[in-house]
Specification:
The chain has 157 residues and is an alpha+beta fold. It is 59% helix and 17% strand. It has helices at residues 2-26, 60-85, 91-113, 138-156, and strands at residues 33-36, 40-47, 116-126, 129-132. It has a four-stranded antiparallel sheet. Helix 3 (91-113) runs antiparallel to helix 4 (138-156). The protein is globular and about 50 Å long.
Length: 157
Amino acid sequence: MKRLRMQIGLFGILLVLDQITKWWIEQPEFRPFVVFDGWFNVVRAHNTGVAFSMFNDLPPAWGANLLVGVTIGIAIAVAFWWWRERHTSSLTSWALLLVLAGAAGNIWDRMSLGYVVDFIDWYVRLGGQEYHWPAFNVADSCIFVGVVFLLLSSFRK
């Protein structure tokens, strides 16, 4: 039971952190800024697609509904998997929790805003050119770390 409370608490903390950072970015007075020149900026980006802005070109209403439906379906599948794993001492249950927290944050955005708020802009400057990784957010980071942990835990079995 203690593990379950800790996991639910972590889920809540990550979801709140994700939404607070996105709220801050969406404020009218927010201005993009450089954190580490040549490496890292904080920007405002609205992503109506999914990873790497895929499906951004879909008609807005149709695309938003499709993406919300698909991501909710995936989140439900992950939630069932987490429910089965929640009492194990494995890394898997924690990894699934990270994926769920990230999915919940991005689903919240899609349902309330019609897009996902991204703001972390990693890039490198080489030979006078800048090469940017697509902007992402706290929820995306949770999903990424969760998937990495899932992969690592799969090698341990």
